[in-house]
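re: the backbone from monday

yeah here it is again, tokenized this time
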């Protein structure tokens, strides 16, 4: 261990000192690193074990490492989905005293995958669209707190399954800035254009490697992030004018925002036209409505769509129990649901299968499987029967997402030369001109 090593960390872990910081990251042995799929990065990134968990280590300059570390910590305080920064390792030297690159250490997000590892054979159209939708939602959340990304892409994002959809997490923040006065429309448009071009290139790369369904149009899928982003941004910020006798539409608007995962901080209501209309405009809102409600009732930490699905089951359970036991409060029934329903399903998963999916995702898939079996058998299937069937016929054959190994994640896109070479087809369009 070099004597002049400098470690910056808010949560100091002494086991950081056990890693071979006197070696360049590319020379770390198989005993030091963990083979996990990773996205495409301009920097060398390796995974290592630290105190029983997995961390990602990226070599970069000391200035960039400190800047990104501070930015990720700030985004965490703003409750934006991103990886957790652990430390910056600076002033590294090798055994001969030669300087080595600084390193940024972040905690690996369990059960998360880079987009290229989600499908090792071919990505289906629905999957590609769900990934783009998740990235659009993440971009909206970032822009709400004034964060300009500058390098929006699928490669700079990690995805976790979320009840049939995906939840997106920011991984690379080195190009990002937070503007205290909020982002202008022009800055938001810049980020959207960067996202559209980068996603098109990434999907075209998958197509070049025969890992994208041939029916998918990469350009159209990439363009869908613009539509999804603008739709969500409009829903969050647009005025709505309603007739005075239709004030129920205020509640309808709030419910639509809740369905998108946002809470209302405050409503501004303006009356006009002699009191015949009401214009409503929600103030800046906080994401994670269903996540927070489920966590407050049960303590379960779930993704937003998972939480919405589980809340439906919880609310149904509470309604049924209220009829039989009207004197029992909602909080007591929520705790009962957690112990008698959710916890039993998760506990039924054998130990050797618990690395497949997170508990909330398992519960969601069991509910889906129960519905399928009930439709198939034309009768109500119990949760116990559905759980056993799901574990035996579905979960046992899924890949481990806690630590998915040996998935090819290298680039396959041909190199594009800057000047036309002899024999090139001058009429062949550059992919960047198609975007």
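seq for it, each position gets an aa:
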């Amino acid at each position: 261990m070099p004597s002049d090593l400098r470690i910056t960390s808010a949560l100091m872990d002494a086991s950081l000192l056990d890693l071979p910081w006197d070696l360049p990251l590319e020379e770390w042995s198989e005993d030091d690193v963990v083979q996990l799929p990773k996205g495409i990065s301009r920097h060398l990134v390796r995974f290592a074990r630290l105190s029983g968990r997995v961390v990602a280590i990226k070599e970069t300059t000391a200035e960039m490492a400190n800047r990104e570390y501070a930015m990720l910590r700030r985004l965490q305080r703003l409750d934006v989905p991103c990886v957790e920064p652990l430390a910056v390792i600076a002033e590294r030297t090798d055994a001969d005293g030669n300087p080595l690159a600084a390193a940024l250490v972040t905690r690996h997000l369990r059960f998360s995958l880079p987009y290229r590892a989600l499908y090792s054979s071919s990505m289906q159209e629905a999957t590609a669209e769900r990934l783009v939708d998740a990235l659009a939602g993440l971009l909206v959340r970032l822009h709400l707190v004034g964060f300009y990304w500058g390098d929006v892409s699928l490669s700079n994002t990690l995805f976790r399954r979320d009840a049939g959809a995906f939840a997106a997490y920011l991984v690379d923040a080195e190009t990002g800035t937070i503007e205290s006065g909020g982002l202008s429309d022009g800055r938001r448009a810049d980020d959207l254009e960067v996202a559209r071009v980068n996603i098109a290139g990434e999907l075209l790369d998958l197509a070049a490697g025969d890992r994208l369904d041939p029916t998918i149009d990469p350009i159209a899928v990439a363009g869908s992030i613009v539509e999804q982003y603008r739709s969500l941004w409009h829903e969050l910020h647009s005025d709505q004018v309603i007739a005075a006798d239709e004030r129920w539409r205020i509640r309808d608007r709030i419910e639509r925002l809740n369905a998108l995962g946002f809470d209302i901080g405050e409503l501004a209501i303006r009356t006009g036209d002699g009191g015949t209309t009401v214009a409503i405009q929600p103030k800046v809102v906080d994401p994670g409505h269903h996540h927070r409600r489920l966590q407050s009732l049960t303590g379960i930490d779930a993704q937003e769509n998972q939480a919405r699905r589980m809340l439906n089951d919880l609310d149904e359970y509470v309604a049924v129990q209220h009829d039989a036991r009207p004197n029992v409060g909602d909080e007591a029934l929520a705790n009962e649901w957690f112990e008698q329903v959710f916890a039993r399903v998760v506990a039924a998963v054998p130990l050797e299968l618990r690395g497949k999916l997170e508990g909330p995702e398992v519960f969601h898939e069991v509910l889906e499987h129960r519905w399928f079996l009930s439709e198939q058998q034309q009768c109500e299937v119990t949760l116990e029967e559905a759980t056993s069937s799901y574990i035996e016929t579905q979960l046992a054959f899924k890949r481990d997402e806690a630590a998915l190994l040996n998935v090819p994640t290298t680039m396959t896109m041909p190199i594009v030369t800057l000047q036309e070479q002899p024999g090139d087809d001058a009429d062949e369009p550059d992919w960047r001109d198609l975007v």
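The chain is about 40% helix and 15% strand. The first strand starts at residue 6 and ends at 8.
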